[in-house]
Amino acid sequence: MIEKSKTKKIDWENLEFSYIKTDYRFISRYSNGQWDEGQLTTDNQLHISEGSTALHYGQQCFEGMKAYRTADGSINLFRPYENAKRMQKSCERLLMPAFPEEAFVEAVKKVVRANEEWVPPYGTGASLYIRPYMIGVGDNIGVKAADEYIFSVFVMPVGSYFKGGLKPSNFIVSDYDRAAPKGTGAAKVGGNYAASLLPGKDAKTRSFSDAVYLDPATHTKIEEVGAANFFGITHDNEFVTPVSPSILPSITKYSLLWLAENHLNLKASEGDIKIDELDRFKEAGACGTAAVIVPIGGLQVGEDFHVFYSETEVGPGTQRLYNELVGIQFGDIEGPDGWIEKV
């Protein structure tokens, strides 16, 4: 257990979700078929070849995680081995060398420990965001996998996504596709996010929080909400999330599926959520690491605007799921075995 320590003099209550240069980051290099031991460094700049495949062919992937200060001053990681496994799958899809699970988690712990003064105090609603990533580097020009790679982890304190509490947001169904059928939708790669920038901007221009994407094959089923996963709670108390080979397997989503069934006594499943059957759902939301849960107040579908529970009030099921998950992350509620890893 880590003792309570001094923290940086920061206005923790008013932190944004934005980049802050912290003291240390971890970096490891891959060459000649193996990873080196890696090291902590204070340098936040990368010096890479102009021929790096990450720059030209999008050979890169990343993860998003958080560290949480608990009431006793210790620090929690939430299901870090799941992030390690997901990153390995992203690497496999892009022909990058996997970074070993144990080494991944230990690297994350090293960076969090080295930046412990940046971990927000318990009770502020803030947390330490963790960004592991991998890029293809080296002198390349042909379209092929690189021979050299960089794996790195950096962190920064971020504020609560919700200023003034959990509030519903409105979204709009996009005409754009987030990912192609049998493409890279299930991998956490930068290209998926670059493709979402234009439809996301279009949605915000129309005063919506973000775009909702339908399945690229038939455009009849909901897949994702911006950079987050979708969920709905039906009138007969079933918690449903979309199923598709082009959806990113969200750790938050699978955690909510478990909590819905085991803590809220809801039937929980992955299944098709057809865009013309929204009346099935009394509540809906988006979920992911950054925001945990964003309640969906209304959804613009063509000329029609569908309201779920309310545009101003959070549904009771959504509120309970949020409270349960955040409670586990900050150590106030005991979670299933293996969900919390102490730093």
Topology:
Blueprint: E1 25-31, E2 34-35, E3 39-41, H1 53-56, E4 60-62, E5 65-69, E6 75-78, H2 80-93, H3 101-114, E7 127-137, E8 148-158, E9 169-173, H4 190-205, E10 211-214, E11 222-225, E12 228-234, E13 238-242, H5 251-262, E14 267-271, E15 281-288, E16 292-301, E17 304-307, H6 316-329, E18 340-342
Parallel strand pairs: 9-10, 9-16, 13-14
Antiparallel strand pairs: 1-2, 1-3, 1-8, 4-7, 5-6, 5-7, 6-18, 7-8, 10-11, 11-12, 12-13, 12-15, 15-16, 16-17
Helix pairs in contact: 2-3
What does this structure look like?
By secondary structure, the protein is of the alpha+beta class. The protein is 22% helix and 29% strand. The protein has six helices and 18 strands. The chain has helices at residues 53-56, 80-93, 101-114, 190-205, 251-262, 316-329; strands spanning 25-31, 34-35, 39-41, 60-62, 65-69, 75-78, 127-137, 148-158, 169-173, 211-214, 222-225, 228-234, 238-242, 267-271, 281-288, 292-301, 304-307, 340-342. Strands 1, 2, 3, 4, 5, 6, 7, 8 and 18 form a nine-stranded antiparallel beta sheet that branches. Strands 9-10-11-12-15-16 form a six-stranded mixed barrel. A hairpin with a 5-residue loop joins strand 5 and strand 6. Helix 2 crosses helix 3 (101-114). The relative contact order is 0.16.
